[in-house]
Amino acid sequence: MTFCSQNHSKPYLCKKNQVMTALSAFQLAILKGIPEELPSSKPFDSTINHAPRRKDILTTEEKRLALKNALRYFPVKHHVVLAAEFAEELRAYGRIYMYRFRPDYKIYARDIETFPHKSKQAAAIMLMLSNNLDDAIAQHPHELITYGGNGAVFQNWAQYLLTMQYLATMTDDQTLAIYSGHPLGLFPSQKDAPRVVVTNGMVIPNYSKPDDWERFNALGVSQYGQMTAGSFMYIGPQGIVHGTTITVLNAARMQKHPNYSGGIKLLITSGLGGMSGAQPKAANIAGVVSITAEINPKAAYKRHSQGWVDEVMQDVDQAIDAALQWKEKNTAHSIAFLGNIVDLWERLNERNIDVDMGSDQTSLHNPWAGGYYPAGLTYNEANEMMSDKPVLFREKVYESLRRQILAINSLTSKGMYFFDYGNAFLLESSRAGADVFDTNGRFKYPSYVQDIMGPLCFDYGFGPFRWVCASSDAKDLDTTDLIACEVLEEIAKTAPNEIRQQLDDNILWIKEAKKNKLVVGSQARILYADAEGRIKIAAAFNNAIREGKISGPVVLGRDHHDVSGTDSPFRETSNIYDGSSFTADMAIQNVIGDSFRGATWVSIHNGGGVGWGEVINGGFGMLLDGTEDADRKLKSMLHWDVNNGIARRSWARNKEAVFAINRAMESEPLLKVTIPNFADEDLIQTFF
Ligand SMILES: NC(=O)c1ccc[n+]([C@@H]2O[C@H](COP(=O)([O-])OP(=O)(O)OC[C@H]3O[C@@H](n4cnc5c(N)ncnc54)[C@H](O)[C@@H]3O)[C@@H](O)[C@H]2O)c1
Q1: Which of 10, 295, 384, 556 stands 20 to 30 A from 95 (CA)?
Q2: Which residue from 74, 142, 149 is spatially nearest to 107, judged by alpha carbons?
Q3: What is the pLDDT of residue 556?
Q4: Residues facing residue 182 across a β-bridge
Q5: Which of 363, 419, 452 to mutate for ligand 1's pocket (most ligand atoms within 8 Å of CB)?
Q6: 502 in helix, strand or coil?
Q7: What number is the average pLDDT over the span 210-235?
Q8: Which of 244, 361, 364, 383 is the pocket-test mutation for ligand 1 (most atoms within 8 Å of CB)?
Q9: 151 pLDDT higher than 70
Q10: Can you tell me which atom of ligand 1 is nearest the CA of 363?
Q11: pLDDT single digits (tens) 460-517
Q12: Ligand 1 atom with the shortest distance to the CA of 366
């Protein structure tokens, strides 16, 4: 281990000197990894939002295996103490989190230079994963869950400690392999290779049922990485505000209730959690009145205190009346109804309220372990029932979904526009036997991707590009906002009509982003952009870093919920109609392609959004440090990262994507894509 002996204002590692100086307790703790001596055990902190007790699914033999698996991180001399403690965790929580090893320092996105490192790229990864575990960001920080109820960064604290130590000591000639949170080790590679390759929840396809996840996760051998949780790219609800704003804005543009007489529209939805918490904020930005039901008081008040929702109300009629008054005043306003979404839908229906738009963002990808709280039970009753009486709990969830659909169906028959928000709501409701199919046997309501996100964004290559200023300095974020805005305005000058609205919406978004106070945690920004926009913005950042206009490196990334990264038949690829929506070639091709074109880290996950076994999704992170290497990599990798998906969408005969890939081929002579021919429908019908 080599550290710099110079008196730097910020202590950091350097390659030459052998003397260790000025290392903070934080840095020493990172370098120590799993401590030799046992740290004292930690009391359970009830002020923090904790994951619900997981299902007791393991056989006795499997419980022994889980214990052995956990103990392999520690020297034998500690096994007597730790075995008793871990067995108790398994009994009490259904998982072994190794709470004792949770570090004493605060975990958050510090300035990149404060992370001990030999590789700047590895330091960027430490910053990003720290952000995912920040108390202010993570849904269940002590269980290492970032969002979505089960979106894990690691399975236990030993994995965190080891990973940080590996990252702090690795060089640019090594790659760290992480298997579902477990750092397998550092392997020799080369400087253009990713520093980290992450896989999450990858299992043999026949073993991808929800209970398989429960079992593998309890054994400590697999985890649900969601999308940006296990890939270290979560930036708080801001990441989703922009996409939600685009969705709500376009839903409001497209749909009109029969009784609509101009003015502002009303949106009803649910969920104030990790991603769903963005809905009221997005509705305000999109100029819509909204009521969002949330059953968990901690989640509702957290979003209120962060300014994501304007007020919290416990009485259903009071919430409805208040919303109608704001509608009357023609003023956007967001209300959190602290209660069950089913109660809200049923009351709206009973009162015959004109609801313009409706959706749902409970975590139905995870219905049996805290993702969906059935009507008629308190929050605590439901939490107990899901682990103590799982069969009864399942019945309650299904009964509740049938009631919810009944009320929604009634309101849509009167003119409401309802869309599935990619949370497996219609899928799970169909399993519950609810009336969700049309006469052709398809879901009677579209997903937001089918109606909005697919044709307006993904097929043209627009997706949730994002960046984080690694200096953790808000001034740098302001500079990047300005640069990104200038780049988009320049592109808009010559953009074709097909993508003008998208560009205008995105320019408006970036101009207002600071005013909307979206930053929680790292100095991050999300901005929907297409391949041209992403490459030009990234190149402009890299220049600005080189010229010192931005004071430190910038990390690029994106949500997996994007053009190319995700194969998900009920969400990202739900507007693929050539029968290939159940294939996962695109996501796998994407992550492999990114990894040899310059990504700093890559990840590929089973599960994310709609649920374990329902989706394969991947992402990347890329460090811009002002160098020519970064210039070369960003151009090559971002081009592939978007155009892979456009090419696939084009091959599926999506007209917007055919337009976009032809345009891409005109500007890049090395790009040659197979373009589909369109068969005549009448000809086809002659035969079948
Ligand atoms: N916004 C998007 O674009 C988008 C994108 C991807 C996925 N999703 C999906 O949306 C879902 C929500 O994501 P999240 O990160 O917010 O999850 P989350 O678990 O953090 O939040 C869901 C919230 O719903 C609440 N809830 C559950 N049942 C309820 C009920 N019956 N009534 C009222 N509140 C209830 C929970 O208490 C929780 O706070 C996930 O399935 C996710 O995959 C949304």
Answers
A1: 295
A2: 142
A3: 98
A4: 179
A5: 363
A6: helix
A7: 96
A8: 361
A9: yes
A10: 41
A11: 999 999 999 999 999 999 999 999 999 999 999 999 999 999 999 999 999 999 998 8
A12: 41
Long-range Cβ contacts of 431-437 (<8 Å, 24+ apart): 431/398, 432/397, 432/398, 432/399, 432/401, 432/402, 432/405, 433/398, 433/402, 434/401, 434/402, 434/404, 434/405, 434/406, 435/405, 435/406, 435/409, 436/405
Per-residue pLDDT, 483: 98
CB 54 within 8 A of CB 97: no
How far, in Å, CA of 579 to CA of 183, rounded? 37
* Distance of CA 272 from the midpoint of ligand 1 (Å): 7
Mean pLDDT of the chain: 94
174: nearest Cα among 164, 182, 162, 166? 166
Torsion angle, alpha carbons of 422, 428, 430, 436, to 10: -40
44 Ramachandran zone, left/alpha/beta (phi>0; psi -120 to 50) = beta
Q: Which atom of ligand 1 is nearest to the CA of 279?
A: 1
pLDDT at site 681: 95
d(CA 645, CA 585): 10
Handedness of CA 169, 112, 103, 607 (dihedral sign): negative
* pLDDT recorded at residue 254: 84
Distance between CA 273 and CA 237 in Å, rounded? Answer: 9
Q: Quick check: helix, strand or coil at residue 479?
A: helix
| Closest among 119, 241, 232, 206 to 171, alpha carbons compared | 119
Round to whole Å and give the CA distance between 100 and 43.
9
Report the nearest atom of ligand 1 relative to the CA of 365.
41
Compute the C-alpha angle 292/298/299, nearest 5°: 40
How far does residue 137's CA lie from ligand 1's centre (Å)? 15
Q: Does ligand 1 have an atom closer than 6 angstroms to the CB of 448?
A: no
Please report, as a single letter, which amino acid is at residue 679: A
pLDDT digits 0-9 by tens, 519-534: 989 999 999 999 999 9
Q: Residue 314 pLDDT more than 50?
A: yes
Assigned token pair, 274: 């990790």
Interval between CA 147 and ligand 1 midpoint (Å) = 9
State whether the beta carbon of 422 lies less than 6 angstroms from ligand 1.
yes
Question: What is the CA angle 102-379-335, rounded to 5?
Answer: 100
User: What share of residues in the chain are helix, strand, coil (percent, to 5)?
Assistant: 45, 15, 40
Residue 56 to residue 59: CA distance in whole angstroms: 9
Q: Look up tokens 């906002």; give the residue.
A: 481
